Structure formats: C-alpha cells, structure tokens
C-alpha cells in the first residue's frame, strides 16, 4: 500500500508541475479575476487546462450550466464563463490537495485508511462547495424578495404624488445609496448609472431584471414597462395589485427563514440536553456505586 501511495503521490505532484508548465500561462489572467471565497487561485491553471483540453464543460452541460447560473447571480454576467471555470478548478484543487494529504497519511501510518479518507473528503468537499454556493444564491434571492415590496410601496406613493416613474425609482435609489451591499439596491444603482450613461429607461430596466434573475423582479419590470407610459390611476392600481402579491411572497419567505432558524437550533439543544443529563446523572451513579 505504501508503494501505491508513493506512485499516486508522484503522479499527482508531477502531473501538476507538468501541466502548469504546458498550459499554465494561458490562464494567468483568469486567475486574477476577483471572486469572493476562493483561496487556491495560484494552483488553478493546470486544472483549467485539463477542463478545456478534454472539453469537460461540453460533456456535462447541465452541471456546468447550474454552476454558471449561480456564478452569474453572485458575481454578474461579465466573465461568467471564466469565473465558472475558475470555481470548478478551485474544487478540483481541493480534491487534489486532499488526495495528496491522504497519500502522505498512508505513508506515515502504513495503512490504506489515509488514502481512503483523502479520497472521500476529495469528493465531499466539492459537493459542499456547490451546496454552499447555491445556498448563497438562495439567500440573495430571498433578500431581493424581502426588499422588493417596500421599494414598490415607495414607488406607488411617489407616483401617486405626481412623480414620474423614472424619477420615483431614482429617488428611491438615492435614499438607499449607503446600502451598496444589498443585492437589490446594488443592481438599482447600476441601473441608475446606465440611465445616466445614455441607456433608455426600457433598456436599463430590462438589464436590471436580467441581472437580478428573480421571477418577482421580472414581473415587477414587466408591469412597470407595460404601464408607465399610461401613468395615472391605471399605473398606480397595477403596482398596488402587484404589491399585495409581493407582500404575500415576503411573508412566505419570512416563514421559511423562521423554520430554517428553528431547525438549526435543534442540534445545539440536543447537545445541551445530553450535557445536562451527564452532569445530573454522573453524581447519582457515583453515589449508587459507593
């Protein structure tokens, strides 16, 4: 088993060095792309070379499409393909490092368990990374859905007071300029910049909807674009009806988050219960043995 571990270790380390020499230079610019949460960009070029050399992305389109969709929501549509490649390469790097660690443990202990542990962790960690990214996307969508009804109410009030739709949205964005980290207002600020840069209201609003990639935002965008030219009571009524629907969805999201929070408390409560039993039961057992 030690001989096998040595062979695997040499193949993994030597293969990375060879691939880095062959195709590493092509991906130096991709590695420099800003992407939150990545730690192993320096080790990624050989993995990216393997992915493109053997056309792995075209062989598993559904898998990579889901990852790319999540990357687009979290980091924008620009360079989404390169960022998807970088993220998958990061997962491969973790698997590669865990296999190396497993080989070293096998060499140190002389048992196959080290290599088996490294292989299992090398499969579980990428799956955990994908799940974590999808949970971040879900949290982003929920944040947008939680804030959208309040934004819509403000727009209804301003339009009812005589403001145009464009000015009402611009005023709402200016009031929330400090909340650049919120996904909804971050995209609205970008939409405002597009308007100031020469885009028409329709183009900027459609681009805003595409960047958000949330069904409720698409409904909001469609409602606004269909009715904003009419103005008056028809427009206000359309937005008011939409507001009622969005508030109901916000309530559903709030209930879901509450259920998730309560379920997360179950494990700590069980641990505390076990500790209390041990603390109470140990003195009683000691007294019985005496």
Automatic annotation (TrEMBL):
<dbReference type="Pfam" id="PF00482">
    <property type="entry name" value="T2SSF"/>
</dbReference>
<keyword id="KW-1003">Cell membrane</keyword>
<keyword id="KW-0472">Membrane</keyword>
<feature type="domain" description="Type II secretion system protein GspF">
    <location>
        <begin position="152"/>
        <end position="283"/>
    </location>
</feature>
<dbReference type="InterPro" id="IPR018076">
    <property type="entry name" value="T2SS_GspF_dom"/>
</dbReference>
<protein>
    <submittedName>
        <fullName>Type II secretion system F family protein</fullName>
    </submittedName>
</protein>
<keyword id="KW-1133">Transmembrane helix</keyword>
<feature type="transmembrane region" description="Helical">
    <location>
        <begin position="85"/>
        <end position="107"/>
    </location>
</feature>
<feature type="transmembrane region" description="Helical">
    <location>
        <begin position="265"/>
        <end position="286"/>
    </location>
</feature>
<feature type="transmembrane region" description="Helical">
    <location>
        <begin position="113"/>
        <end position="130"/>
    </location>
</feature>
<keyword id="KW-0812">Transmembrane</keyword>
